[in-house]
Amino acid sequence: MVEKAGYGAGVVETGPLIRAQALQVGYGGDALLPPISVDIGRGELWAVIGPNGAGKSTFVRTLLGLERPVAGGVTLAPALRLAYVPQAGALDAIFPVSVRDFVLMGRQGPGNVFGRAKAADREAAAAALAEAGAAELARRQLRDLSGGQRQRVLMARALARDADIVVLDEPTNALDLAAERDVLALIEKLRARRGGAAVLMVTHLVEDALERADRALLLDRDHQVALATSAAAMHDAPEFQHVYARFVARHPHAEEREGPR
Asked: How far apart are CA 10 and CA 79, in angstroms?
């Protein structure tokens, strides 16, 4: 494992797909959160939750190698196929690219964006657009799409990537209820890929996420919280109750475990 601030692949031969060990995230050498240690295993769904400005996106960007750690490190399993679905609003609305080509770029992977696409890649991109319910958008420009349409296209790109682990940053943000349901259904399709892809999802849909997830990570910059536990146990954690008690009901069996008061 990496013992200093760093990011690398090919270290974990077996076991987790991604391992964060005493990882501290932040900017300019200043940590936003306490050290974070998590192992993301095959087929697991992780929900990353916390209030606005808690450091969730910074954690994700550091995990992906887009930001340097302040301390600690991240290691990846060898030959890991990874897909990142940013918030739809983070896309460059001016960049002239068709939906078909944008999804195809995800299929080709980094370093091969301008290479000639193989027939298998084109077929996979078309199939992913169809699976995401966005086939009719293939010839349109990405910049002309609505927020909900862009999110479908982002999910299609992740499907086309056929990744071992998919990282999603607020995939249902600013969507209506019907679009939210569609995106959540697509996340389940992602999990079925490659014999069980792992999914790490930053989300504000706390109750729904904890119902679906296997594991959860609560981040709270203001109160210096970085708590990783099972999704089922998160409801009753004091740190979770401090942040969400007014909005989210406690686990239905909490009183049975505690006994009468």
From this structure: 7
59 domain residue, yes or no: no
DSSP state, residue 17 = S
Which domain does 118 fall in, by range?
Answer: 92-162
Whether 219 and 244 have beta carbons less than 8 Å apart is answered as no
Tokens 């769904």, located at residue: 45
The beta strand positions in 50-183, using DSSP E, are 71-76, 82-85, 165-169
| Coil, strand or helix at 56 | helix
Residue 24 placed within a domain: no
Total domains, the chain: 1
pLDDT value, residue 192: 75
List the structure tokens of 149: 């349409």
Interacting residues of 40 by C-beta distance below 8 A, sequence separation 6+? 16, 17, 18, 19, 46, 165, 198, 200, 215
Let me know if residue 109 belongs to a domain. yes
| 15, part of any domain | no
| Global confidence as pTM | 0.83
Q: How far apart are CA 63 and CA 112, in angstroms?
A: 23
Average pLDDT over residues 178-194: 79
With CA atoms as reference, report the closest residue to 221 among 27, 6, 21.
27
